Every structure is written in structure tokens, then in C-alpha cells.
Task: structure prediction
Amino acid sequence: MTADTRADADRLVAAARAGQDEQAQADPVLDVRDLTVSYIGPDGGTVACRDVSFQLGRGEVLGIAGESGSGKSTLITALTRLQRPPATTTAGSIVFHPAGRPGIDLVPLGARALRKLRWTSMSIVLQSAMDALNPVMRLGDQFADVLRTHNRGMDRAAARTRTTELLGMVGISADRARSFPHEMSGGMRQRATIALALACSPQLVVMDEPTTAVDVVMQRQILAQVLRLRRELGFAVIIVTHDLSLLLEVADRIAIMYAGRIVEIGSARALYRSPAHPYTRGLRDSFPPLHAPLTTLHGIPGTPPDLRRLPSGCPFHPRCPVAVDACSTTPPPLVSLPEQAAECLLLTNEEAS
Amino acid sequence: MTSATNVEVAQPPPAAPGGTVVPTTRLRVPSRWSFMLRRLGFYLAAAWAAITLNFLIPRMMPGDPSVAIIQQLQRVSGQQLPPETLVSIQALFGNPDANLFEQYLAYLGRLARFDLGTSISRFPTPVADVVSSGLPWTLMLVGSTTVVAFVLGTSLGVLTGWKAGGRLDAILTPASTFISAVPYFWVALLALWVFGFQLDWFPSSGGYDPDAQGVAFWVSALRYGFLPAATIVFSAFGGWLLGMRNMTVTTVREDYVLLAQAKGLSPSRVVLRYAARNAMLPSFTGFALALGGVIGGALLTEIVFSYPGIGYLLYDALTKRDYPVMQGVFLLIALTVLVANLVADSVYVLVDPRVREQG
Amino acid sequence: MPSSLWSNPKVRFGLVVVAFFTLLAVLGPWLTASVLGLDPRANDISAIASPPSAEHWLGTTQFGQDVLAQLVAGARGSMFVGVLAALIGTALAIVFGVTAGYFGGTVDNVLNFVTNLFMVMPVLPLIFIVSGYLRGTGLWMIAVIIGVFGWAGGARTLRAQTLSVRNRDFVLGMRMLGESHPRLIAVEVLPHLVGWIASMFLGALIGGILAEAGLAFLGISDSGAISWGSMIQAAQSQSAVLRGLWWWFVPPGLCIALIGTAAAMINFGVDELANPKLRAGTRRVVRRTRRVERAVAAAEGGAA
Result:
């Protein structure tokens, strides 16, 4: 009951901030509303993602950041419809808008229809390229099978040519197509999975911690490459990571997740300069700035809450440095600000005062 | 012992026995050859160990087997043994007048000439002849049933693992758990009772129709062999199914299978080329190791059906205290299993591009 | 551990069955003798090879012996061999596996080589041969032989586990502090292997029971001893199959199968507890999730 009223309220607020994400609103590639994902246990479900709503514009880079256990991985598998029991989507919609065609809600979509959309519309780059590539298949074969599944007419030679082209885009030489994954270095494997993700010219690439398995230098190289390819090919990107400083550099907009909710969403600039949510502030201050002199770092005290026993009111209030009494009783509404929106009770007070 | 520590300790077992070593880029084509050479060296050492064990066992046993054998041979033959036979038996089973090292050299010399001694129960047939008469029957029976059980169990294991928690899984997995715990020879007894005697569908003993000739002989061999073969397949496939099921359930949750699904590949392709192909790797190693067990099980099954293979020979030798035949049978089984292991290792190198380093 | 172990239905089933047979082996023979007044060796001339009846619940053998009393006595014989063989096998596996894994280097190479040798040897035929020389020596000798030849698989597992425990920070730290090796093994390494050792012991127990049954079936066991295997062997040698005396050879085989299933269930359940990927594949989890999915779909369909 409360969830419904809350969702309604959120929708109103979302409508109210229609002006701020013009690009996303005008021509969205993905429109997620009230997405709720639960893990079904013996005594009911544990909600790992609650009422997640956001829009993604064509060619936009959306970053999603949060600590482990914030529900960001759950969100990814729900968005890509790759979840397995005991996880299940219990509410909400994920509407995908192919260019020039009506939107399709992915949530009720059957396996066969979903398979047609996969990779041609939405592809994914997983955290560890070592684990994401089939260890007993040559790299080229892993390109060829997806190319030839989605282009019935393509023959082996054409698939080989396309693979060479794709590998070339990420700076891998053509002869590597004959290699097995274990014969390549970590950075090369990760670049290969990015090339693989672009094989069928998708409109959206979802990246789950794409650079945690490689070293810092390689991280920068890979992300620069992704941004360049996005400029050339025009796909949108959802990039999920726990590394906010990295998102501040690459993302157009950023969503901050805490305890399964998006607690703040807005332009990267706004979130860096003036984070509205105390949690966002905490995250920002716990990373060293990349292009500025090192100042004092502040961690966030405490640990993420147990999703099975969420604190009442605002789930962040036990760790919040600025919490007031009302925070432990009243669930915070989503408050729209000029360049961002955040769920914090204090923002309503500021508005009131 | 608290719950937390135990769960932490009981990490998922390594994918392959001996542990999956994270492959490095250093491993290129030549390492396959060095891997095979190392395995070959190991099996040669194992063969030597089996031969030596065969030498030591009769010498470590209480009493003096060679004296007992000579006495028995003289009794069954009713005459003094020719000196050549005496020398052969003492070389193989112990000579109280020579030291262990001299005995060992003499023993190896005999083996090099394929002299395994003389059978007591079938005097004067040489053991080598007795054993080689049973070998084709066992090879056919164990060979065919092992392959059938492996293929059947592995495919069903992929199916149940892929649809883990489904209906097929709910029936087949507990059933296989039960079946794989049942002793082979007891299943053989039940099969004999039901299909051999109650229903009278199959002959109850022997390996062929002694009156049949030519084609009829081969047809009778199939008919006689069906029930023992079916018994072994029935007892053995459950183990493959369980192993493959659990490996598939684990593999299906690997990222590369997830990615294969995200790629929108057809389900059959995801299952076969991505999940099953990887889940099968440990089964190949298990295949060779399980051979020893299947042979042991087949020995007992052969006895129930009086099937003219190695197992029945061994049983016959045990009841008649025909030590030379017992030793010969063991040596033969040990060497056969080692060769099978070597073959399985070679296949493994072909199916897994990452050469696994193991001891 | 006990509570989470107990919550798994597979483990629960297995533990109940193993406990039942253990109790049967310990108390059973006394119960059949004093309560039912049955002696497994007594010959009832008035009931030769008779099917199950009020007087003989599981019928009698060719020699007029009560099958139920034999089954209970056989439980003691089979369990005795199983436990003793498992004790010896597990002890050897610990000595070889843990030592090899802990010390590494040359010690590991030598011990691992020996372990692999025993792995590839066809153990069952080997046991047949050795017991063939030592025939009629009784159940304890059989148990020793089974234990001595059947430890290699366990040693291999323990070696791998020891290797991983040894390289953890706390063990390395203690070593640098100058703790002695035996103390480190006993205090730091072994406690982490208890789960593996327990499941190995269980596996060896069942393996021992099965191997003894096989040996008894070959007629190697001491003819005076009663075990499930010797019951089947007696039935076989008296042509019980040919004559359809199923109550003679079916119950002991069922008992072996049941206790084997129990052990397999426990191992299966412990695997599920240890490996979350396996747990997610259990029927309960899948059905629960599908039920919720159907409910959500139905609710949305109703709303639309």
C-alpha cells in the first residue's frame, strides 16, 4: 500500500522534473519505471531493488554507483533479463525504444522474442573478461557464433572479416582471433569483450564493473576507447561501478544506489560539485580526486544495511552524519533540484525554509 | 565446529581433480607435449609399480605360496614336475634359496617372455593362455558398457543440470543417487531373478551358445551378453549423471554461459557449446579413474552370470586357490587400466586447450 | 553447523538413516535376541526356506535361519568393517594428503606420486587378490586391507585443501612467528579440514561396506561371520535366485543401497550448503520463484 502511494508520488516528482533531462525525455532508448526485484526465500521475498526509475537518452552514458550490496548488480541482471531463480522482477517496466519503432516492455517478454532483441539491441560487458569468455573456444568463434545467429545470411568469411574489423576497433590484431582466452593478457581480454559487445551494433551497452579486473593504466585506456567508440557509433552506455571518481570522468549522468534504491540521480557535474544526498557526499569524499591535490579523505562510517532488515524511515539514517529524528520514521520523498533529484528529508525542509 | 567455519572451509571442490590451475600466457603449444611426456612417464612408473606389487604380494604373504603351488601342481598332475616348470614357479612366486633382488631379476625375466606360470586348476595350460581366453569377453563387456553408461549418464546429467529444479531433475537425481549406491552384483542378482528366471527373456548363464557357429555364434553372444551389459550400465550411469548434473549446475552460473545467453544464442547452442562443453572436462578425468571401479564391478557381475571373462576366471581361481591365475589376472587388469588412463589423458589434452598442470 | 546442516532435507534424511543403522548395529543383535527371541545362527527345521510369515517376519533361509535376525547381525558385521576401514583409510589420507600439501616441495612430490599410484591402481581387484591369500582371516583383517588400499582419493582432496589453507595469511603469519610444524598442522590446518574429513570418512564407510559385500560375495570372508555381503553370498551359493527365494537376497542388498544412498545424500547436501550455485538449483528455490513470477504475471494481466 505504502509502496504504491510512494510510487505515485515518485511519478509525480519525475513528471515535475521533465525539463531537466531533455535529451533523455525527448528520445529515450530505455525507460525504466518502478522496477522492483526480489530474491524469493523460504519466508517471502527480500527486495534488492525497489521502485527504480530512470530514463536513458540515445548515446548517453549513465553511471550507476554504489557500495557492494546496494543492488546495482541485481539491477543489471534485471535490465538485461538475465536473472535466475531465486531473483525475480516483481513490479515495474523496462521499456526499450528501438530507433524509429514503438517501445517494447522487456519485463513480460517471452524467451524467443527476447532472444531476437539480445545483442542486436542491448549487449553486456561483464566484470571479469577471464570468466566471460568461453575458455575452450577460440576468440574468433565466439564472435562468429553471435554474428551468424543474428545475421542469418552471413557466411564464415564475412564473419571473419567483421571480427577483424571489430578487433581492430579496440586495437587487437586480426591473428588474435585464433587465440584461446587464456593465451591473452587481462587487458586484451577485456578489450575483446568490448569489441564483442559491439558486434551487432547495439543501441545500448551495459557494462558491469568493466575495469575492476585490470590495472589503473589499462582502465583509463579502455574507458577512453569506449568513449571514442560511443562518439563514432552512437550507442548508449550504462556503466555500473563502485568507483564514483571513475564515473565522474566518463558519465553524462550518474545514479547513486543505496539499499536497492536510487537515492540520487543527476548530471555528473552536479553530483560532483553539489551532491544533494548525504550519502553521495560521503561517497565523493571517500575517493581521492584525480585531477586535484589530495585533500582529506572521509570514509562513510558503518556498513551497508541488511536488505532483509532495513532500518525504518530513510535506510541511510543510521549512518547519516546529518540525520534528524524524523529520518528514522519518515521515508524520504524524491525531491527535484535544478540539475538532480535526490531522496532526502532534509531537502524538503530546505525547500520549506 | 560452528556452522560459519565449516561452510567457509567447504569451498566448492576444484573443477578438476587435482585443482584447476589458473592458466597463464606462458603455456603454449609445446607444453602439451611436455604434459603428455610427463603423463607417459608417470604411467610407466605406475606400470613398474604394479609389476613390483605383483612380485611382492605373494612373497609378503604368510606361508610360502611357491611351495604350496608346487605341491598342488604335483598333486593335480600326479607326477614330478619338470625342472623348467619348477624354475618358472620359483621365479614368479618366491624362491627361498635366492635373495630378494635375484628373485626380482628372475621374475622380470620371466615376465619379459610373457611367462606368467602354469595354471593349477587347468594344468598344464600356461596362465597367459588362460587369461587371454577371458580377456576379449571382458574387454567387450566393460568397454561397451562403460561407453554407453558414460554417454547416457552424461547427456542426462546435462539435461537435469540445465533444468535444475525442474521435473526431470526431481525424478532422475534422487533415483540416480539411489542406483549409484546399489552394489553391482546385487542388481545383477535381481536382473537374473526377474529377467532370467521369472520372465525367462534372457539366458541365465554363460557368454554364448556353445552349439552355435558362425553368425549364429555372434548373435548368441549378443543375446547372452545383453543382461550383464544392461546391469552394468544401469549401475554405472547414475554416477555419471550426478557428477555431470552438479558440474552443469555450477557451470551454468559461470559468466561465459550468462554472456552466451545475453548474446541471444539458441538454447541448444548455449547448453552444448558453452555449458556442457566445459562441464564435461572433469568427467574426462573421472572417466579414466572410474574404469578401475567399473572393472571391479564387472568382475562381480560376470560371476553372477557365469560370463566367461576375466572376472569369472578370477572367481574360479580364488575358489580353487589357483594363485598363478590370480596374479596373472591382476597384472592384466592393472596394465589395461593404466593404458586406458593414458588414452583418457591424451583425449583430455585435445578437449581442453588449457593444459592442466597436475602431478 | 548442526542447525544449518539439519535444515537441509537431504542431509537430514542421510543422517537419520545412518543413525538408524548405527543404532541397529550397536543394539540390534541384543534386541533380536532378548525381545524377539531370535538367534541368527539357529536352524528352525520346521521352517526351511519359508517366505515371510508371522513367525519369521522376513522369512527363513535354506538352513531355516531367520532372515531378520541375520539382517540385524549383518548390520553389525558390515558396519564394523565399514567403520574400521574408514578409520584406517581416513587416517592414511590425512597423513599423506595433509603432509604433502603442508610441506610441499620434495615431500609433496614423493607423497603425491604415491597417492597418484594408488589412484590409478584398480583397487578392488587388488583387494581381491590380497584377501585371496589371506582367506578366512575374519572381518577385521578384511577391514584393514580395504582401508590400506582405499585412501588415495581422500588424500588427493585433502592435499588440495591443505595447499589452500597453508597459503592463507594467518598460517603464513604463525609460521613466521616460529610455531612448530606439528603444532601448526594440528591447530591451524586440521580444524579447517574437519568438514572435508567428515565427508571423506562417510564416503570411506560406505565404500568399506560395499567392498566387504563384494569380498564376501566372492566367498573370501570368514564363513562364520555374518554380514550383508555374506548373506547374499550364501543365497547365491544355495541358488536362491534360481529358486525364487527373494526374501533371502533382497533385504541385505536393500540395506546396503539404503545406507549408500544416505551417504550420497549427505555429501550432496553438504555440497549444496558449501556451493551457493548448487543451492540455487534446488527444486524448492526454483518452484518458489516461479510461483511468485506467475502471481505477478497474473496480477498484471488482471490489471490490464
Remarks:
- The two ends of chain A are 30 Å apart (CA to CA).
- Residues 273-352 of chain A form one domain.
